[in-house]
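Many introductory courses stop at the sequence. We go one step further.
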Amino acid sequence: MSRRSEAQTIERSGFHIKVPKSWWEFDIRPASRDDTIRQLVNERIRQRPELAEHRDAFTWFLQKAAGDAWKSGALYCGCMAESFGGAAPVTASVTVSVIGARTDDGEILPTDPQLIAQQISPRPAKRDGDAWREVTTVEIPQVGPVARTYGIEDVAVPGDQRTVRAVLMQTFIPVPGQEGTVALVSGSSRVLDLADSFFDMFDAVTSTFRFV
């Protein structure tokens, strides 16, 4: 297995999750993130000079992902930013947050996966190109059943009135011993043409989530 396909374990207070070693992971605090991101981009380009033409795109994407993660209260933000010979890099992010489980209208939900799934509305596409969302439950090894949504959705920009269309998978994992609280593992990408591949990748990453 190549280094780029190997996994690294990310540990935070109360949980750990595994992501590919090629992903970017950094401090998302406003005071330090920009300098850290610039240093990481410079180091990655030293290792892989073919990425130099995408320096500005990588830096912008990582800074935006870090900013959005901070505003949403995420405890972890990991980013994929790779060039596969196309005109633009392929980017995606996975965040982990601990939140109160809520409906679309903001009503607090019980954390039973079936009840969460029943309270979140699927959104079928009415025509080609529309946003859509599926709602289901899945099993995570050593964790148990969890509620999940996935689709191509119009996602609110934190601190803004705008939305962006993105591939999105959100998995709601009940936190043991904390009523009304879930760990939300959210994977997103703006590269809509690769939606199915990203669903597989986000599922694989989320399946490594464990409480500790």
